[in-house]
Amino acid sequence: MKGLLIIADGLGGRPTDRNGLTCLEAASTPNLDTLAERGALGLMDPIRPGIRPGSDTAHLSLLGYDPRALYTGRGVFECLGAGLAVQPGDICFRANLATVERTTDGFVVVDRRAGRIETGQSELAEAINTVRLKKTSDVTHEFVATTQHRGALLLRGENLSRYITENDPHDVGRPAHRIEPAKRGDPAALRTADALNELIERAYDVLDRHPVNDGRRSAGEPAANFLLARGAADCPHIESVTSIYGARAAVVAGGALYRGVALACGMEVIRVPEATGGLDTDLGAKARAALSALETYDVVFLHVKGTDNAGHDQDAAAKTGFIERIDRELFGTLMQAVDRGDLHVAFTGDHTTPIDYGDHTPDPVPVLFVGPNVAVDETKAFGEREAGRGGLGRFSGQVLPMLMGYNNRAPKYGS
Amino acid sequence: MKGLLIIADGLGGRPTDRNGLTCLEAASTPNLDTLAERGALGLMDPIRPGIRPGSDTAHLSLLGYDPRALYTGRGVFECLGAGLAVQPGDICFRANLATVERTTDGFVVVDRRAGRIETGQSELAEAINTVRLKKTSDVTHEFVATTQHRGALLLRGENLSRYITENDPHDVGRPAHRIEPAKRGDPAALRTADALNELIERAYDVLDRHPVNDGRRSAGEPAANFLLARGAADCPHIESVTSIYGARAAVVAGGALYRGVALACGMEVIRVPEATGGLDTDLGAKARAALSALETYDVVFLHVKGTDNAGHDQDAAAKTGFIERIDRELFGTLMQAVDRGDLHVAFTGDHTTPIDYGDHTPDPVPVLFVGPNVAVDETKAFGEREAGRGGLGRFSGQVLPMLMGYNNRAPKYGS
Q1: Quick check: A45 and B391 CB within 8 A?
Q2: Which of A66, A146, B123, B348 has its CB surrounded by the most CB atoms within 10 Å?
Q3: Is B276 in a helix, a strand, or coil?
Q4: pTM to 2 decimals?
């Protein structure tokens, strides 16, 4: 049997979303309602009740891992998702291209996102990667631009540490911080901070005078001349899905973070050029890619991000509309496969992103399981409150292990 | 938004309480039923399913802390709740005033509660506090009488340990035990046991000849001439509610233990002179104090104890009656505030104290959440079985974090 795990980022909502209904409850979702009728629902706390999840920690927990035991920071997943070959000992960061002005106070941040730069990022990345460090000359680095101003940065060398501060002042008009050891007198952290500070300064020198930025200045756009680095992380030891379940697993995701988490768990990446990681993604193409991957792989994890984007934008119509597109374009493409009888599907969110709050909340998320081994419950529609009446009750994380269980692929604990 | 957490100690019951109904189910609770209709119910395991909670561990868990990680013993909460300024390294105890007779066998216990002494305790406490230790002369102590025979005792000095035995034989007619190190050859525990044994002996000398006890003997009452100490604990590191949520928090509670737990979690104590920590408490006064505190504080924890007392007394009529008073006098005072739309209320118990058993059981407790961000479920009354059908399902502890989540005050874990 095969398994398909679909996570709609930030799927959950609150009754304040749309006149007493959540966006999911308000959306017309005939395919999901059919699956609810043919399967079973429950409420899932991504990490545990009352814990407000990040997307990284929530995904680890849904995939069956304990983030409290192995989460070191977001950077490692960004680097993996960006295609960097992270090795034990590397220190990984999320890094934005930003706009600064060099003053006597230091590098004053003018735009944290360099005007959401859309072109020329790979040339800038190449320039950053030509920099050679002098003071900590054995430390090498690699920067990859991902979407717009976003990127991933990796430092490699002996005896580095993730216990350092970030340089992002999280505000414009203020100088970027110097990177410091999080704990005074930690030699590995001091060495890492020194290397990163030197890299940031030398990168400024090559970025500020780069032809891409000359072009941006002529066009009245802010120069992308600075790196803001955060989320320092080293590579956690995560037992692979293949090792745990003896199963081959693949991921279909537009966002680098989600590919990165999946890669860290031993999944392989299926590239779908039409997947944007946004509201404009091609949901049908992703569904077709997942179905095609299921011919080769035992389990496929398909991630869509638009629900969360609309939640952060506090746009109830966009979130409801995207949920309706998930129902029509994604599940519409999948409904026939569900009928085959050799497939279990799990559908849920990684957390709740209500419209009114515009950020993640700890509220539980509805979850749906459907397939031959799922005991059908009385629910007839897919939504938060219907899930509260669901036959699966309320539980925390562990969605992939449950899916693998329905597929008779769970390892025995004890004997 | 503001949050109000109300815990009725030992609220939960069993169908053996009253002819097939729990005391809560048998009680007439129109206000709670209205709130159930306007909010959502669930079943909560105070610590986790099958674990029979103490009041201290249950409260830590409901407030969002893991008692397995940080619980060291009850004494520290008793000391904090009694108003002692506990410092790291101090060893704290619950200590009863008791009646003993000095014999060749040692101090034979005649009454473990000194006839539930009602007057003169503070004079006796003062006498205990005049004692100076000779053998471990650097160790100081402080005893505070709380209610009746109950009190809190603190030892302060370098290199003390909580790993010592207690002296309470838990029976009359038997000599009090000598305090011993829990593990042979532990020098800190030996030093602590020596100090406490000396204090107990010297305290007997000043208590036995104290005018308060002369008076008691003349009146035919047992002398309060001895200290029974138990629950040795040192000060755990508990991150404060203010540090976790950036919220100011206050507690309204008659019982020292509950004020102590709240103080350990960084809450401030609102004194309500009418709060007795018993069945005779003034519930309206406590509700008014909580409402008034909510003008200043972000979250208020209100504790009532009578439900548990009636459960321990195996008095179903008293428990049902107290629940009806909670509904009428406490919630009656609060109903208008719930309508304001800027308040979330959580109501639950810290454990189940059924009538037939007369002590805590591991059975889950019904929990109610109501407020603008709570998705209304189908429940229409507040009770154990109605909560089993509730939209919140079943979960363990974490009531305060969930309340703070509804108030958009939860910290993000991950990114």
Answers
A1: no
A2: B348
A3: coil
A4: 0.92
CB contact under 8 A, B402 and A22: no
Closest by CA to B368, choosing from B354, B388, B350, B348, is B348
Please answer whether residues B81 and B97 qualify as being in contact, where contact means their C-beta atoms are separated by less than 8 angstroms: no
CB A262, CB A269: distance < 8 Å:
yes
Rounded CA separation A256/A254 (Å): 7
Give the ipTM.
0.91
Cα distance between residue B192 and residue A177, in whole Å: 49
How many Cβ atoms are within 10 Å of B138's Cβ, its own excluded?
A: 11
Smallest Cβ–Cβ distance between B412 and the set A15, A22, A52 belongs to A52
CB B304 within 8 A of CB B328: no
pLDDT in tens, B97-147: 999 999 999 999 999 999 999 999 999 999 999 999 999 999 999 999 998
Q: Rounded to whole angstroms, how far apart are CA atoms A59 and A276?
A: 19
Q: Which of B114, B54, B74, B97 is nearest to B260 (CA)?
A: B74
Identify the burial level of A293 via C-beta atoms within 10 angstroms of its C-beta, where 0-12 means exposed, 13-18 middle and 19 or more buried: buried
Contact: B413, A388; criterion CB under 8 Å = no
Q: Of the candidates A50, A74, A384, which has its C-beta nearest B402's C-beta?
A: A50
Task: Give me B334's structure tokens.
Answer: 């609060």
- The residues facing A168 across adjacent strands are none
CA separation, residue B87 to residues A124, B90, B234 (Å)? 56, 6, 9
